[in-house]
């Protein structure tokens, strides 16, 4: 997010400063949440058959004062910011005093147009302001996707089957039939199965380790149970002998 804001700010002449605030834990209410609530209430009870329906549903979610403006993007308009951030943001952010700035301590970030120095706040006082320099390397922005992301062949087969069974109405069949499928699905599924097996093996090892760590506790507990049992038997025997005495 920070790399995107720093890189795109010089391209917008009408914007001089961007300040981004980080919400505190437990105070996560944002203005945009009201928009999400309006959209959620509008689509409740509506059946969405194809992804292309969402554009109209998002636009018409609000009636007053005006419908929402929805901008449709193509796959080529998405930038791979994960790869670009290494050339924009230093791996270890440090202020002019060579003190490291921790991400977990950030409360706000302030970008100024045509300045490589970015201001940070690690608290809520003026003395908490620090700064670091971005863009330490030449920026290389690449498209995240060269073409539309294909779907798995098995997924498309299931969707087409729903179309044939008329679960999905006829006017929406073309959109699913036009989906491009991913080649080498078997390899993907095999890798997924390997990951599941590895995860299962890891969970088994964790369980075994947990049981191993629990052995001393179980030994003490069993010893305590035996001790209590012997004491109870001794008490009962003593009580019986006392009752039998004249």
How would you summarize the topology of this molecule?
Layout: H1 2-8, E1 17-21, H2 32-43, H3 53-59, H4 81-88, E2 108-112, E3 117-121, E4 129-133, H5 153-164, H6 173-177, H7 185-244
Antiparallel strand pairs: 1-2, 2-3, 3-4
Helix pairs in contact: 1-4
What can you see in these coordinates?
The chain is α+β, with helices and mostly antiparallel strands. It has three domains: 2-133, no CATH class; 150-183, no CATH class; 188-246. The protein contains seven helices and four strands. It has a four-stranded antiparallel sheet, covered by helices on one side. A hairpin with a 7-residue loop joins β3 (117-121) and β4 (129-133). The chain is extended and about 85 Å long. The N and C termini lie far apart (91 Å). Mean pLDDT is 76; it is low at 239-243.
What's a quick, concise take on this entry?
The protein has 246 residues and is of the alpha+beta class. The protein has helices spanning 2-8, 32-43, 53-59, 81-88, 153-164, 173-177, 185-244, and strands spanning 17-21, 108-112, 117-121, 129-133.
Provide the number of structural domains. 3
Helix content: 40-55%
Largest sheet: 4 strands, antiparallel
Give the percentage of residues in beta strands.
5-15%
Mean pLDDT: 76
The structural class is alpha+beta
State the oligomer: single chain
Number of helices: 7
CA gyration radius, whole angstroms:
31 Å
End-to-end C-alpha gap = 91 Å
Coarse morphology: extended
What's the total count of β strands? 4
